[in-house]
Amino acid sequence: MAPKFGTDGIRGIANQELSPELALALGRAVAEVFTAGSCVVGRDTRRSGSMLVAAVVAGLTSEGVAVSDLGVAPTPAVAHLAATLGVPGVVVSASHNPFADNGIKVFAPGGVKLSPAVEADIEARLGALLGDPFSAKRPSGAGVGVVRDGSPILESYEDHILSCIDGRSLEGLSVVVDAANGACWDLGPRVLRRLGADVSEIHSSPDGFNINNDCGSTSTAALSKEVLRLNASLGVAFDGDADRLVAVDHLGHEVDGDHLMALFARDLKAGGFLANDAVAVTVMTNIGFHKAMEAEGIGVVQTPVGDRFVLDAIEEHGLALGGEQSGHIIFRRLATTGDGLLTAVMLADLLVRSGRSLAELSSEVMTRLPQRLINVGVVDPGRLGEATELAEAARRIEERISAEGGGRVLLRPSGTEPLVRVMVEAASEALADQAASELAEEVRRVLGREDPFPF
Known about the structure:
By secondary structure, this protein is an alpha/beta fold.
């Protein structure tokens, strides 16, 4: 059976489930489906990235495609170039996953995530190519594709980000950047410096192994300490491929995607740039966000988890803004996908224009209902949909927390890792912790735990 696309591409342990053979066949399948003459390819800083890029590029060029190899590049940079050049884009990255994992995600011409129909087409062709790699005739001689250095065109993405705040300066703002030892390790600090910010860096020395290792958007403790030590105005943390961003205020407190979305929504509405006075968010978004938007007169469109679904809602409803609690934020006028560097620049600009601290603004814009998230490692997350026993347990727990002040329960399989995500919101931290722990134990009992599991 051919590998399937998850919520964010095909992922697995590099050189095992995600093999060079698979990457080569996927490159060929992408070339066959899009029949494009050109493609842009980028990667993050994982050790396996060069190996897998070489295989993807071999597949693309074997079908006659000219490839611009960007080298290490943020995922949103690949999406931006796919949009501006009108060609497909391929990113070799596993985002926030540990370094031994890797993934391959594909953007259609126009820089957007693949539709389910196109994914199915690529999967079918991938299966056929893996079953019989010599089944399709390939070009030879001058028909073989060429590989070009993509670094000159990558500069256009940097110029685009610099232009997004209309010539304003970030002078006077001190920012600590946690680059997660990932794809934005060099570009992120450089862009903020070029805009006038006083920038300090941590986790900006990738060695192929240290991407996302106790750093970045999923682990902000070190960033908080550095912000406090330097008395900085702001801390920003990217993930491995820099398509998401989480912030830290000057008091060392983490500010997640929900709070950032609330700030941007209010700011865009005040400036007359919030199309249709509504935003798109996922089912993971905190109830406090919904209450805050109601108070601001801003509508909320709710989607399944995944920035593809958020973008679909943005397009369907003609919106300007959408995002996820994890920090994927889409400014549709400026980007086709979540962009951590763009979000960092937009946040810094908002702070400079307001003359106020992130701590003050974020506490003012919304009050977060206590939320507890537990990732439960299981062998087959897909079995969750068949587990009526778990659905009943979730219903009982939700009824209980609703009776004790309000809240909700959400169970969902991860689309990128062998996990079931258990989320509980309740009137108090203690109640949320208790209910989430109880439900997580039920998931382990019913679905079985994969052992050992690194989370």
